[in-house]
Design goal:
The structure is a single chain. With about 325 residues, the chain is of the alpha/beta class. About 40% of the residues lie in helices and about 15% in strands. The strands form four sheets. It has a seven-stranded parallel β-sheet, sandwiched between helices. Strands 7-10 form a two-stranded parallel ribbon. The longest helix is centred in the first third of the chain and has 21 residues. The relative contact order is 0.14.
């Protein structure tokens, strides 16, 4: 296939691109290389991919309507993996307009491109953050998610609605994947594992929000990428049994699907930190703090729907994934 990957310089985008190339697909990757976190890390991810003849990188902003229209017109893409977004729950509290531009306008240009150029399947990143105030664990795509508690979550839920409109009106097959706390080598510096390792090695306190009582469904990057590719190869189709009188939130009569993609193993935050300490051979200095606005206390993914649809089975636990990250971090930063 010829695949467009947006956000190709990002953590999940670069890893997904690498695996697409490994299996023989042609990939065009785009990214605006914004400074939300160190652009040098993004550039390094792209440099690792650039030795592949079947990869082309274009620095471009998804929210630029003219550039995106030209990209789709000339690209002759079969499928699209849309991973570009303004990430971060806490950042959305201080920079709300960045989320509207990147996550709504940027997604609309992708949908328009898919609509006008016969894209066979659009797979896009949603987030576990959409579950908001829901406390029914494990989180299921059959749950109501009408009560987001951050603007980031609201934009991701909006993406799901927008995709459904294009699936319903124009027949664009769309699948949304709600990612649960992705971690691993080449990860994002704003995520907990990266920040904790960095701070512990510098003998600096690490902030532990929620007094350490939080749990997270940490998902290793290889498991995420496997799920993305399996989903990409299985275009969404309409459910002939979908009942508008008792609507299932995760399916539709249109070619539209939602799935959780997570590790399926919720981990207490303090245990997560303990595993990091073991890998580093160094104790953390913990600064216990209350919950932050926009955060949720617990996450746990029900991945049964994705497993049944594409055979997704997460396999990397944190006692394997954390050492792999630490090994990469020490090598990359020469610590």
């Amino acid at each position: 296939m010829r695949v467009l990957v947006t956000g190709a310089a990002g953590f999940v985008g670069a890893a997904t691109t690498r695996q697409l190339l490994n299996r023989g697909d042609d990939v065009v990757g785009i990214d605006n290389l914004n400074p939300y976190y160190d652009p040098k890390l993004k550039a390094a991810r792209i440099e690792r991919l650039s030795s592949e003849d079947r990869f082309e990188f274009i620095q471009m902003d998804c929210a630029d309507q003219d550039d995106m229209a030209k990209l789709f017109q000339n690209g002759k893409f079969d499928t699209v993996v849309h991973l570009a977004a303004q990430a971060g729950v806490r950042y959305s509290l201080e920079h709300p307009f960045a989320y509207l531009e990147a996550n709504l306008n940027g997604f609309l240009t992708v949908l328009e491109g898919c609509r006008h150029h016969g894209i066979k399947h659009l797979v896009y990143a949603s987030s576990s953050s959409v579950y908001g105030s829901n406390q029914n664990l494990p989180f299921s795509v059959a749950d109501n998610v009408d009560h987001p508690i951050s603007l980031y979550a609201a934009t991701k839920k909006s993406n799901e609605h927008m995709a459904h409109v294009y699936a319903h009106l124009y027949g664009v097959p769309c699948t949304g994947l709600r990612f649960f706390t992705v971690y691993g080598p080449w990860g994002r510096p704003d995520m907990a594992l990266f920040r904790f390792v960095e701070s512990i090695l510098k003998n600096e306190p690490i902030p532990v929000f929620g007094e350490g009582e939080q749990t997270r469904d940490f998902t290793y990057i290889d498991d995420i990428v496997e799920g993305v590719l399996r989903t990409l190869d299985t275009p969404a189709s309409g459910d002939a049994n979908w009942d508008p009188n008792a609507p299932d939130p995760g399916t539709s009569s249109a070619p539209w699907r939602l799935y959780n993609i997570g590790g399926g193993r919720p981990v207490p935050l303090l245990h997560f930190i303990s595993c990091i300490e073991t890998c580093l051979g160094q104790k953390a200095v913990m600064d216990f703090l209350p919950m932050q606005p926009g955060d949720v206390r617990h996450t746990e993914a029900d991945v049964q729907a994705l497993s049944e649809a594409v055979g997704y089975t997460p396999s990397i636990p944190i006692d394997v994934g954390i050492p792999r990250f630490v090994e990469w971090y020490r090598s990359y930063y020469q610590t």
